[in-house]
TrEMBL record, chain A:
Primary gene name: LOC108828228
SUPFAM superfamilies documented for this protein: HLH, helix-loop-helix DNA-binding domain
Name of the molecule in the record: Transcription factor HBI1-like isoform X2
Compartments, as annotated in UniProt: Nucleus
Organism, scientific name: Raphanus sativus (Radish)
Alphabetical list of InterPro entries matching this protein: bHLH_dom (IPR011598), bHLH_ZIP_TF (IPR024097), HLH_DNA-bd_sf (IPR036638)
PROSITE patterns: BHLH (PS50888)
GO cellular component: nucleus
Keyword DNA-binding: yes
TrEMBL record, chain B:
Organism: Raphanus sativus
Identification of the protein by name: Transcription factor IBH1-like 1
High-level lineage: Eukaryota, Viridiplantae, Streptophyta, Embryophyta, Tracheophyta
Gene that produces this protein: LOC108820742
Claim: Transcription regulation is one of the keywords in the record: yes
Record's subcellular location: Nucleus
Entries under CDD domains matching the protein: bHLH_AtIBH1_like
Length: 331, 180
């Protein structure tokens, strides 16, 4: 049986530099703890989930519920191996042990690799993990699961540590990006499963970003629920656009946008600190009086245009009003 | 990633440009005409910010082009005009009844353990939701895989947020002006 960890993310340079025998040696001598840096607000959740993973080692991994894993699956797999969970959270970083050593007399007879990986701070746009499947005789088989391009990729590290890949990886980091996946203990290691697993990792990573973006999604654990929330959010945003355009059409019969003649500094002030649109909340600027929609164009709309068309002579009160508006935005 | 102020500004500029096109024909006395003008120009502005790199932006531009070709051509007076308007991915048409029937037959043959059933139901649910997401995101039907779909929704949500933020602030400014 072959074992390994799944790392969807990048390698560190130290890992890249080590050759195969060095790595073996390192593994035999000591266990290294790698630091996985995450955004700080994730760490309490991740700690929980680490423990969760640690307790559910193989069943969880092998069950069909792996569909619902929202985390990078490589997380907790090694925890119940030959050593206890030895991780520490440091300032929003989560460390995970990367490997363990298996006694050669073990029936599986597998040597696990000890990999030293350190992660860049941002999870985004990083796509490197290595495929290593190892047999008993420690031959090294690399499986390039996917080559993928990303337009806004942000690679920092050298791609590989063996001669097979170096030339390709280094020169074409921007264009050709191999997804390296390591098989975990108790999982099939043929190419298709690895490819599928890599795909699933990617999807769950992206879903995590979506969860951060959509308000109120952090509490939901299942894919279906999160997708549901996302759909509702998108539809509510669309409805807001409709509603706002209707409101603007009512308010503004000349289709003139107020900002176009504002001076530059007002413009700047206007757009700093825009809060995130939250579907459930009403209009952000709650201290402004609401304009009743049923008031029709017969109102003194002519007031707007002279104020808006010339910066030279805006009426003082309009400016103070808009300044208070900006102030509330800047809050 | 939250909408940045530069994105807001760019959106506003493009939107204003779009509204300028409508301004000559200002005898859109009906509210619905004006609303349509506002919404369409806002949508094209939002989509053109991505400059054709994302699938949803292309699909959105195509959709508005079907409603108001003139506006789109004027707003995107640049190079990408033709490519954006004509590009389309092939859409796989499935006869749903036939697919459903064959799926039922397949399900009958398979062995049914408890855990498998639950998993199958869960998968079905997720599939249904992703289909719903495809309907929500413009051009979702053309995204062949789920990874792309989720990437696109991410981008789409951010752009929608900028759009809503800018529109809301404009509306509030106008409201404040009227209140006075």
């Amino acid at each position: 049986m072959l074992e390994g960890l799944v790392y969807p993310e990048s390698l560190s340079l130290s890992y890249a530099d080590m050759s195969v025998p060095e790595r073996l040696k390192g593994m035999q001598q000591h266990q290294q703890i790698e630091v996985l840096s995450q955004s700080s607000n994730d760490s309490p959740e991740l700690l929980q989930i680490l423990q969760f993973h640690g307790s559910n080692n193989d069943e969880l991994l092998q069950s069909t519920f792996s569909h619902f894993q929202m985390l990078e699956s490589g997380f907790g797999t090694k925890y119940n191996m030959d050593f206890g969970p030895s991780h520490e959270a440091m300032d929003g970083c989560i460390s995970r042990t990367s490997s363990c050593q298996i006694d050669p007399a073990d029936t599986m007879g597998v040597m696990l690799k000890n990999s030293v990986e350190s992660r860049a701070i941002s999870l985004k746009n990083k796509r490197k993990s290595e495929v290593k499947t190892r047999e008993e005789e420690k031959t090294d088989k690399k499986i390039k699961v996917e080559a993928e391009t990303e337009s806004n990729i942000n690679n920092k590290e050298a791609s590989s540590d063996t001669s097979k890949e170096t030339s390709k990886g280094d020169s074409e980091i921007q264009k050709l990006d191999y997804i390296h996946v390591r098989a975990r203990r108790g999982q099939a290691t043929d190419r298709h499963s690895l490819a599928e697993r890599a795909r699933r990792e990617k999807i769950s990573k992206k879903m995590k970003y979506l969860q951060d973006l959509v308000p109120g999604c952090n509490t939901i654990t299942g894919k279906a629920g999160v997708l549901d929330e996302i759909i509702n959010y998108v539809q509510s945003l669309k409805r807001q656009v409709e509603f706002l355009s209707m409101k603007l059409a009512v308010l503004n019969p000349e289709l003139e946008l107020a900002v176009e003649d504002l001076s530059v500094n007002q413009f700047q002030a206007y757009f700093t600190n825009f809060p995130v649109v939250i579907a459930s909340k009403p209009s952000v600027m709650v201290d402004l009086p609401l304009f009743p929609l049923d008031q029709q164009g017969s109102l003194d709309l002519s007031v707007i245009n002279p104020n808006q068309t010339s910066i030279d002579a805006p009426s003082a009160s309009w400016e103070t009003q808009s300044h208070s508006l900006f102030a509330s935005v800047l809050r | 990633m939250q909408p940045t102020s530069s994105m807001n500004k760019e959106f506003l500029k493009k939107w204003q440009m779009g509204l300028q096109i409508f301004r000559p024909s200002i005898d859109n006395t009906s509210v619905s005409e004006r609303k349509r003008a506002i919404k369409l120009s806002a949508d094209v502005a939002m989509a053109s910010l991505r400059k054709g790199t994302t699938c949803w932006s292309r699909a959105l531009i195509q959709k508005t082009a079907s409603e108001d070709n003139f506006l789109v051509r004027q707003m995107l007076s640049g190079i990408k005009e033709e490519t954006l308007i004509n590009k389309k991915l092939p859409k796989v048409m499935c006869h749903r009844k036939i697919v459903r029937r064959s799926k039922k037959i397949l399900m009958r043959r398979k062995s049914r353990s408890a855990m498998e059933e639950v998993a199958a139901k869960a998968k079905k649910l997720v599939k249904r939701k992703t289909q719903g997401l495809r309907n929500a995101v413009p051009g979702g039907e053309f995204m062949s895989n789920n990874v792309l779909l989720i990437q696109e929704t991410l981008d789409y949500i951010v752009s929608l947020q900028t759009q809503v933020n800018v529109m809301r602030s404009i509306v509030d400014a106008a409201a404040a002006g009227i209140e006075r």
